Amino acid sequence: MSRTLQIGVWVSLLTGVLACGSVGDAHKSVIAAAGSVISTGSMSTARAAHAATLLPNGKVLIIGGMESETVSLASAELYDSATARFTNAGNMTVRRVGPNAVLLRTGKVLIMGGSNHEDGSLASAELYDPANGTFTATGSMKEKAAGTEATLLSDGRVLVAGGYNGQFLMGAELYDPVTGTFSFTGKLNRPTPNTGTLLKNGKVLLTGGGTDSLSPAVFANAELYDPSTGTFTPTGSMITARNKYAAALLPTGCVLITGGTNEQGRHGLTQAEIYDPAKGTFTATGNMNSARYKLHNALVVLPNGKVVVAGGAQSVEVYDPVTGTFSTAIGSLDEARYFATATLLQNGKVLIVGGYRMGIVSTVAAWIYQS
Fold first, then answer.
1. What is the pTM of this model?
2. What backbone phi and psi angles, to 5 degrees, belong to 253?
């Protein structure tokens, strides 16, 4: 493909001329370089099912998670890409496995929910202030919930949907950073959506998920949350029912959904699909090279529009929305890592940290992806 043609394809992609997931046959055979993965430093604590957030100062806040099946963490640390080092960042007010962490417009990080081995599901929430490095309590959620999906809305509020507290929740709440309080909003059509993606029209796409790995019920349904009305309405269905997968908003305004599991044994999926908000439909795109699941927080959109897929397998892959294909990066993680996180740094590289291997053994290891 000539450079002129490549530029033309990208212009079409970024302006939405190409339909979501629709790529000419001439471009499907073009697979660009997929970058490389190298080790970078080590965390002070092994952790998985944690949260990682890029702060305005360029550092990455890493909080909570689990060291093992019986050890929940309250500790936090900061990664500095300038030194490739992790430093202690104090402790949260409570131990949290699977917390939600959302960077607010104030520059503070809202941390909420999750669970721990002592208390079960949590309703508490707190704020991390990068200016003074402290964690302070804020208003609590209306319901205790682990496994919620949190999305920053266009108006600065945070939507928190679904979750589990001994039963699977259909409700949703809004956090208002001005008042520091949560309030109920609308009701889901299905419990426990796996991902929430803010669309360019201000609505939130919530898809799939499941209810129980012991008695599996995995969903293909999708719905939209409208902040202006506080309501959830169905929008098409995914091609593949999936849980424990990942989703990312592409430059076109469409959404990439990839990986996950149907909860029939410990098996990941290779299938990926694209949601088109203009049509309310899902279409298939190229498959990943490795089956992956438990990668919810390990999908990152690069400045060039490509998507880094980490976690849920040993390799790292890159999705090219122009060709609709996945390519495998040079290098890899030490082994397949589940519930790891991937965070886009200000220098355009991606920090991949933690995760556990089969047997629920977490790692202190960290890696850098660079294109």
1. 0.92
2. 95, -5
